[in-house]
Amino acid sequence: MSLGRRVLLKASDSRWLREHGTKAPFVRRAVARFMPGESFDDMLAAARGMAAEGVGAIFTRLGENVADLSEAEGVARHYVEVMDRIKDAGVPCEPSIKLTQLGLDIDRRLAYDHLRTLAARSHETGNYLWVDMEQSGYVDLTLDLVRQLRAEFPRVGVCLQAYLFRTREDLVDLMGRGIGVRLVKGAYNEPATVAFPAKSDVDANYLALAQVMLEAGSRAGGARAVFGTHDASIVDAIRRHGSAAGVDAAAYEFHMLYGIQRATQLRLVRDGASVRVLIAYGEYWFPWYMRRLAERPANVWFVIRSLFG
Fold it and tell me: Rounded CA gap, 95 and 296, in Å?
C-alpha cells in the first residue's frame, strides 16, 4: 500500500479532522464532486436526473459505528420513511446500509431487527436492499446476518471486497444462496495478514472474482452480479470476458460513484449495460470522503486544484 493511501486512510479515522477539516471551505467545495448535498432531497433530485439518462441509483445515508441505540433507531426509521418516498417518486433507486449504522457495535440482535425491518419495507415497496461491507473484523458477522436475512427475503445483496484473501470463498457461498454481490476493491486500511497489499494483486484478484461471478452457475439462483469499479481497464476486461462467454450485457451490472466516470457510465448505457450510481448524503461524510480519495489518486489532484479554484 502506498504512503499516500495509508495517510488518507489514517485521516479517515481522525476525530479531530472530522470536526475541524469539514469546516474548511475548500474541503466542502471539493466533496461536492462526490455528493450532491447533505439531504435526502438532494440525493433524490440527483437520482431523478440520472434516471432521465438511463442510469439507476443506489442511495446511502453516510454514517457508521453508531454508539447510541436511539441514534440507530433513528437511522432505521429514516430508511423506512425514504423508501416510501422512493416508491412514490417512481425513481429507480435502491437503499444501501452499513450494519454499524443500525447499532451492530452495541447489540447484534437489535441491529438485525432493524435490518429485517428495512428488508421488509424494501420488499413491500418492490425494492432491493444492499448491505455495505465494513472493515475485515465485521465480515463474518455481516455475512451471517445477510444469510439469515436471505432465508426470508429474496431481494438482498451484500458488498464484498476484492482485496481480502477470503473473498472468493465468500462469493461462491453467497451467490450459491441467491444473494446478490457487489464486488469492490476495498477501501479500508487492512493488515497484510488478511488483504493483498499491492494494487496489482488486488486488480488481478478482482478480475478473477469477476469471471466467477459471470459464470452461469453463479447466477443460477437469482443472485445479481454487480461490479463496483471506476477502473476503465477492468470495466473493459469484464465486458470482453462477458462477450466471449456469451453473457448478455444486461445480465450483470456496473455500479459507480456519483461524480466519477460520468462519460463511462453513459457509454455503458448506450452499449446496453445496466448501470447504477451510488449517491451518498448526510452530515457524516468526512471518513467516507477520505476513503474515496484513497481509492484513486486522481481524486487527490481534484482537491488540490480546488484549493486554487
Answer: 25
pLDDT (tens digit per residue) in 209-222? 999 999 988 888 89
- Give pLDDT tens digits for 115-138: 999 999 999 999 999 999 999 999
Active-site hit among 132, 170, 203, 231: 132
Cell of 80: 423506512
Q: What is the mean pLDDT of residues 154-160?
A: 98
Q: What is the pTM of this model?
A: 0.85
pLDDT tier, 309 (very low <50, low <70, confident <90, very high otherwise): very low
167-176, 218-227, 299-308 — which one is most confidently predicted on average? 167-176
Nearest to 198 by CA among 208, 185, 209, 183: 185
**Is the four-CA dihedral 229, 234, 236, 240 of positive or negative sign?**
negative
Q: How far apart are CA 21 and CA 265, in angstroms?
A: 31
132 among known catalytic residues: yes
Q: Which of 150, 182, 219, 239 is catalytic?
A: 182
Contact 103, 110 (CB under 8 A): yes
Check residue 248 and give its pLDDT.
93
The mean predicted confidence, pLDDT, of the chain is 87
Place of cell 446500509: 97
**42 part of the active site:** no
